[in-house]
Amino acid sequence: MEQDKAAIRNAATVIVLRDRASDPAILMGQRGAKAAFMPNKFVFPGGAVDKADTGIPLATPLPQVCAERLSEKSSEDLGHALAVAAVRELWEETGLILGKPGYWSGAVPDDWKSFAATGHLPAADALQFVFRALTPPGRPRRFDARFFLVDAGEISGDLDDFTHASDELSHLQWIPLKDARRFDLPFITEVVLAEVAGRVDDPTPPESVPYFHNNDEASLFLRLRGYPMPETG
User: Would you state the pLDDT for residue 35?
Assistant: First the structure.
């Protein structure tokens, strides 16, 4: 069945933060010029949730507070699938491993064979849900994206080895957080960068998560704790 390109797809995006105590940097890559969604833009690794993600076992679950925030303003329980998608997309687009040493029981799904071959199981305990954004109407692709922050110290292997990455993102690099806005970024990425900068000194998951909600009526920020963001100005 052909996918409805106008449908809103759930997605997971991963922000890997390196050297947060000294010279914080984030991992980004550039989308292709012919990409239907955000061509040429520098973005974080990430992508849509696959149906199969719901059935992939995790060695460790998401932090409880993150699982609770993910369930708010959501029609279904997507926490597990989003966490799996985050680990999968990070591996596919960068070749970096977020997992625990271990071996899979039974047959390994095709999408996970290269990951399993590293001797790891996907793990979600280091993922922190920090932002949610819904793509505005009228775009060629629409995503309900959940952004996860992870400390680079939780990644297994060499942080500078991108040899296992797919070709979806080019120019993969660690960009100093203070310099990231010099790159060609989507608007929402700039907003997320400000949120990340505010969390550099706090290693704990946030209890309240910003949600940039775009629909046909309005674009507004909400807080995923049941309260709208306070007005400023």
Answer: 61
Q: Please list, residue by residue across 102-136, b when 16 or more beta carbons sit within 10 angstroms of its beta carbon and e when fewer do.
A: eebeeeebeebeebbeeebbbbbbbbbbbbbbbbe
Length of the chain: 233
Tell me the pLDDT tens digit for each residue of 165-197: 998 888 999 999 999 999 989 888 999 999 999
Residue 113 is encoded by which pair of tokens?
């064979």
* Dist. CA 7–CA 140, nearest whole Å: 10
Residue partners of 42: CB distance under 8 A and separation at least 6:
28, 29, 30, 31, 171, 175, 183, 184, 185, 189
Query: How far, in Å, CA of 216 to CA of 33, rounded?
Result: 28
Is the CB of residue 134 less than 8 Å from the CB of residue 212? Answer: yes
What the block records as the tokens of 233 is 């100005």
The 3-class SS string of 22-89 reads CCCEEEEEEECCCCCCCCCCEECCEEECCHHHHHCCCCCCCCHHHHHHHHCCCCCCCHHHHHHHHHHH
Sequence-distant (6+) residues with CB within 8 A of 35 are: none
Contact at 8 Å (CB) between 72 and 224?
Answer: yes
pTM of the full predicted structure?
A: 0.90
